[in-house]
Design brief:
5 strands; five-stranded parallel sheet; alpha/beta; DNA-binding; transcription regulation; single chain; carbohydrate derivative binding; Rossmann fold; DNA-binding transcription factor activity; about 60% helix; about 280 residues; WH-like_DNA-bd_sf; Arc Repressor Mutant, subunit A; globular
């Protein structure tokens, strides 16, 4: 198996149904055929659109389809993915080397997320938050930390919300939501059972639902009115999920920025009021 084949296989869980069709077509074709094909021809053969192809190559880490084809043409089983290797921390790395790798990996993850996110979905999510009567946020494990940050940001902007990490409390919360309420589920994999189940229950009770995940074709998206897709390129099983948390917080900042801009006067007033409320907590 060539390096690019292995690379695409490792990214397969992050692809949507349409993107998987593209990946599978490429994996099942001769390299020479793909390097000579146009983006229009590939879209036709895969039964998708040129926009899907463009999104696929960006998610695979390339700027354009031409860049992807060039990399494929040069793939002769040598390690053409030095960039991936360059951000992996190894035993006996120096402190300076670790600093460089963490910085590079963080920037790469943010750039990858920026290239694939749909800002219109974020805008729709912001409008859901603005109109919600009650906002509940679900996340477990590392996602619970991000849920707390989102709770803090929304509350400071004038949208009181509650982050729940206990699975039982998530289930109870979801069962008490109604039409006009909002449930937000955060899951890097999109397959965290407690979070997925809670979002499902919330939706069944009439609540609007939002999910924040790296996997657009995962179970949580089935119960989401809008999906906020991000991408870190990190395997949390092999790492501490640092880059996954980073891009989740990046998404929270985008959402908060939209709300601050849209509800500027409200956010400004609430920000001042909440700042005054805690000013005497400082020495």
């Amino acid at each position: 198996m060539s390096k690019i084949q292995a690379f695409l296989n490792s990214r397969m869980p992050t692809f949507t149904k349409s993107e998987k069709k593209v990946a599978e077509y490429i994996l099942n074709s001769k390299k020479e055929d793909i390097t000579r094909i146009t983006i229009t021809e590939l879209a036709t053969k895969c039964g998708t659109s040129e926009a899907t192809i463009a999104r696929f190559v960006k998610k695979a880490g390339f700027e354009t389809f031409q860049d992807f084809k060039l990399t494929l043409a040069l793939d002769n089983n040598e390690d053409i993915f030095e960039e991936e290797k360059d951000i992996t921390i190894f035993k006996n790395d120096s402190p300076q080397e670790i600093l460089r790798k963490v910085k590079l990996g963080s920037l790469k993850s943010i750039e990858s997320t920026t290239s694939i996110l749909d800002i219109n979905n974020f805008l729709q999510a912001a409008n859901f938050i603005r109109s919600a009567k009650r906002i509940e946020i679900y996340g477990v494990g590392s996602s619970s930390a991000v849920a707390k940050i989102l709770q803090y940001k929304l509350t400071r902007l004038g949208f009181p919300s509650y982050a729940l990490e206990d699975p039982h409390m998530q289930a109870i919360s979801a069962a008490t939501l109604n039409f006009g309420d909002l449930a937000i589920g955060i899951s890097q994999s999109g397959s965290t059972k407690d979070t997925v189940d809670s979002l499902n229950v919330a939706k069944k009770h009439g609540a609007t639902t939002i999910s924040l995940t790296e996997h657009a074709n995962s179970p949580i998206t089935k119960y989401s009115d809008v999906v906020l897709e991000i991408f870190s390129g990190e395997n949390p099983v092999k790492t501490s999920a640092g880059r996954s948390i980073l891009v989740q917080i990046f998404a929270v900042e985008i959402l908060s920025g939209l709300l601050y801009s849209i509800e500027y006067e409200k956010a400004l007033t609430t920000g001042k009021d909440t700042a005054r409320a805690v000013v005497n907590k400082l020495y």
